[in-house]
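Researcher: Next entry: EGF-like domain-containing protein (Cuerna arida).
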Amino acid sequence: VRFVADLCKLAEIAEQEDGSALGFDSSNCQAIGTVPPFNEFLNVNTPLQLGGLFIEQFAPTDYGWQAMPTHKSFDGCIKNLVLNSKLYDLAHPGLSRNSFAGCAQTDEYCSRSEALANCWVHGTCVGSFTKAKCHCDAGWSGPDCST
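Model: Predicted structure:
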């Protein structure tokens, strides 16, 4: 299993002094693990922490867990969790701490774009890290969903 963070700013590119190919280290932008045999499906009966860590002082054995999460938190946005071609709904988690709906880093493009101010009437503004655009409701079209 490999988790890759899109648009990760922590990847390192090293220019070689001898002019050979650039070195690229993306290890800070991904996590790799091994799936035990016969466990190819997402097991939601155990902790799955995405985007950060909520660590409470408790004994993992009280819950039948064999391990306790011990990694640093993630500051960013997560969407489109796909496993074995199935899209998982992240809108209603069983437990959420210091996490909010939406993505502040991308939503700001929608809030500050005057050209897309009418988008919300007949569509939804969807921001990325570089721009915003309207996804129009059925029957509506145009840059701001007004036609």
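Model: Note for the record: The mean pLDDT is 74.
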